[in-house]
Design a protein that fits this description.
This protein has 320 residues and is α+β, with helices and mostly antiparallel strands. It has a single domain, classed as Sandwich (Jelly Rolls), CATH 2.60.120. The protein has helices spanning 4-18, 22-30, 32-38, 60-70, 81-96, 108-112, 117-127, 190-194, 204-213, 273-287, 298-311; strands at 72-75, 132-142, 163-169, 180-182, 215-217, 224-228, 233-235, 245-253. Bound molecules: 2-oxoglutaric acid. 2-oxoglutaric acid binds at residues 140, 150-151, 156, 165, 167, 180, 233-235, 247, 249.
Length: 320
């Protein structure tokens, strides 16, 4: 029988052969003091926002009507400017250090972006007071280069208005740098929107309805866009942009519609350490395939999820 130590050594050697440098990278990702030193001044698992979260107010009634009839809404410039510039520095700092931008979620400031008062009020009204945050998040960064684009047209899930995405712009999102487009609910037959994920072909009338219904959503930095999970949307192409378009998205669910084992309190303490690092890795596994630049990180993300799972199985979803 083979010595177990030899088996483990061989496994580690094999992993190093397939994906060189993954082992040390995992240790670094798990090391909170590494992240603290990377961006000194930005807090991790501290949870005092150190300043206001939001500015201005939004009239609730038109937002509710808009969500019900169109499946999306905009809350203009609602994130406090101080929070916004720190979060943008965090995204760029993490990226400059060679990490996928999603690791910006290591830092508290990025969790605070989605907590502007009008956003929380809208989520409570739409999803109920006991709504929860899903463990998947994303940082979108559309480079100012020809060919760069946001995500292709899609829906975020099959739970209709029981899951809402909140997308916060860290830069202005314009027609030139890849702003979001939606197909408002009133312009798309419901069955076409719900079945969009599995749609293989479209008739000419369907295609015309989809093309004709598209609405561009340019917004200023600090604005939040919200949409139901069955609203078709996408990030457009960057054309002649002067800088990257950056946005950060989080998803929220009605408590009774949640079947995830990992859920976060959206208005309480932001997630503990292993949950947040595990969430970054699982988000790469879930969404990284949609971004060619991240495909090389899939092996690393998978190994990181396994490592977090070994430390605390409850910190990550049981799959993949
Ligand atoms: O920002 C983008 O390019 C797309 C955003 C998106 O599709 C999403 O958050 O689901």
């Amino acid at each position: 029988m083979r010595n177990p130590i030899d088996v483990v050594r061989e496994m580690l050697e094999e992993r190093e052969r397939i994906a060189p440098g993954v082992g040390p990278r995992i240790e670094r990702a798990l090391d909170k003091s590494y992240w603290a030193a990377l961006l000194p001044g930005e807090r991790i698992c501290h949870d005092d926002p150190a300043g206001p979260l939001s500015v201005g107010g939004a009239d609730d009634q038109p937002l509710d009507t808009q969500m019900s009839t169109e499946g999306w809404a905009e809350i203009d410039a609602c994130v406090a400017p101080g929070l916004l510039s720190r979060a943008k520095n965090v995204v760029e700092g993490v990226r400059d250090a060679g990490w996928p931008p999603i690791f910006a979620f290591v830092y508290d400031v990025v969790w605070h972006l989605h907590r502007a008062t009008p956003v929380r009020r809208l989520l409570r009204r739409r999803l109920g007071d006991d709504y929860r945050q899903l463990p998947y998040t994303w940082v979108f960064r559309v480079a100012a280069t020809p060919g760069a684009a946001g995500w292709e047209p899609h829906i975020d899930g099959s739970r209709g208005a029981d899951v809402i995405t909140v997308w916060v712009a860290l830069t202005d999102a314009t027609l030139d740098n890849g702003c979001v487009y939606v197909l408002p609910r009133s312009r798309v037959p419901t069955e076409l929107a719900r079945g969009f994920r599995d749609l293989e072909t479209a008739t000419r009338p369907q295609l015309i309805a989809l093309l004709h219904g598209a609405r561009a959503l340019p917004v200023s930095a600090g604005s939040a866009l919200l949409w139901d999970s069955d609203t078709i949307h996408w990030g457009s192409h960057a054309e002649g942009a002067h800088g990257p378009r950056i946005a950060v998205a989080a998803l929220y669910v009605r408590r009774s519609a949640a079947d995830e084992s990992v859920l976060f309190e959206p208005e309480g303490a932001s997630p503990p350490w292993l949950h947040r690092i595990g969430g970054c890795a699982q988000s790469i596994l879930r969404y990284g395939r949609d971004e060619p630049a991240l495909r090389a990180d899939l092996g690393f993300a998978e190994a990181l999820v396994q490592r977090v799972r070994a430390l605390d199985a409850a910190a990550v979803m049981p799959y993949p």
